[in-house]
Amino acid sequence: MEVIDIIRNRLLASGTKISCADAIVFAAREAANILSNGNIKYPVDGPGRKDGIVSSVQHPPEFLPSPSSKFADLVAKFDFFKFSVTDLVALSSAHCIGIFHTAINATQVNTTYAAAVAEEMLTSTDGGVKINVRDMGALARNTSRYEPNGVNMTAVGVLDNSYFNANLQNMVPFGSDFELTQNATALKLMNDYKKDANLWKLAFQAAMTKLSNTLKAQGPLYEEGYRMKCNATNYASYPRPKA
Q1: Hey, how many other C-beta atoms are within 10 angstroms of the C-beta on 16?
Q2: Can you tell me the distance from the alpha carbon of 136 to that of 71, in angstroms, rounded to the nearest whole number?
Q3: Could you say which DSSP state residue 232 is in?
Q4: What phi and psi, each to the nearest 5 degrees, are found at residue 76?
Q5: What domains can you pick out in the chain, each with its CATH number?
Q6: Residues 76, 111 contacting (CB under 8 angstroms)
Q7: Could you give the CA distance from residue 103 to residue 218 in angstroms, rounded to a whole number?
Q8: pLDDT at 239
Q9: Helical packing angle, 20-35 and 2-13, nearest 10°
Q10: Residues ≥6 apart with Cβ < 8 Å to 136
Q11: Please, are residues 164 and 93 in contact by the beta-carbon 8 Å criterion?
């Protein structure tokens, strides 16, 4: 949240009235643009979002899928917010960047990829492994027997359609990613996006626009103004909502 505070404070200093919720959405848009080398651009409503006053560790699992979610659960969680299977597949491609620390499900992934992950963990300074097999070290990538199939191998850490090539080779760490290959509609979309980067880009941008402009603030559980700091509500105690 410190980064979000920095972003928001700069905008506030320029005279732009912006909430922490706005800052998170705008930061995601800029991150997508930077990580895609300027290829991903999408419109975002606002500012004007409200900052909440209630937060609970129980809330995310109610609305967000887990790395081990089955396809039916993925669809149900996305459908709750009016997202389609197309949106689900497109947004899943964000898993082409970042690192993971959790153990993979070796019964679902390519065995050579599982060996590559184990190899990477031995040399990692923090136990983290690159999500994208393309971004692994050369030795581990060779161990995985990854087939580039036209993927730009120099685009390390770049948000692009390389996720689909890896997933179609069962070289992704999360069970929820593997689940996309078990549904005919999702599988076709994955193959389409693997072959056509522009088609993926348009779908990803459309899904991110929808994601950024959903969940409009309603009801009394929001700050009257904006949070002074994004990691805390403006007051130490608020009336608890009735169960």
Answers
A1: 12
A2: 27
A3: B
A4: -65, -45
A5: 1-54+221-243 (no CATH), 58-212 (1.10.420.10)
A6: no
A7: 39
A8: 57
A9: 100
A10: 116, 120, 129, 130, 144
A11: yes
Q: Alpha helix (H) ranges present in the chain?
A: 2-13, 20-35, 59-63, 71-80, 85-92, 111-123, 138-144, 162-167, 175-179, 184-195, 197-212
For residues 216 and 229, what is the distance between their CA atoms, to the nearest angstrom?
21
* Cis before 241? omega within 30: no
Could you report the per-residue pLDDT of 3-49, keeping only the tens digit for each?
Answer: 888 888 888 888 888 899 999 999 999 999 999 999 999 999 888 88
User: For residue 190, how many other CB atoms are within 10 A of its CB?
Assistant: 24
Nearest to 67 by CA among 77, 59, 58, 57: 77
Token pair 């990692």: residue: 124
Beta-carbon count within 10 A of 19 CB: 23
> Taking a C-beta distance cutoff of 8 angstroms, is the pair 136, 116 a contact?
yes
Whole-angstrom Cα distance, residue 77 to residue 91? 13
Per-residue tokens: 213: 């402009």
Tell me the per-residue pLDDT of 146-186, one tens digit each, with 9 for 90 and over: 999 999 999 999 999 999 999 999 999 999 999 999 999 99
Q: How far is CA 47 from CA 15, 42, 117, 214, in A?
A: 12, 15, 42, 13
Beta partners for residue 222, in sequence order: 52
Q: What is the pTM of this model?
A: 0.89
- 111: amino acid identity, one letter: T
* Structure tokens given for 100: 């993971």
The helix (run of H) or strand (run of E) holding residue 99 is strand 99-100
Three-state secondary structure call for residue 147: coil
- Residue owning tokens 């492994």: 129
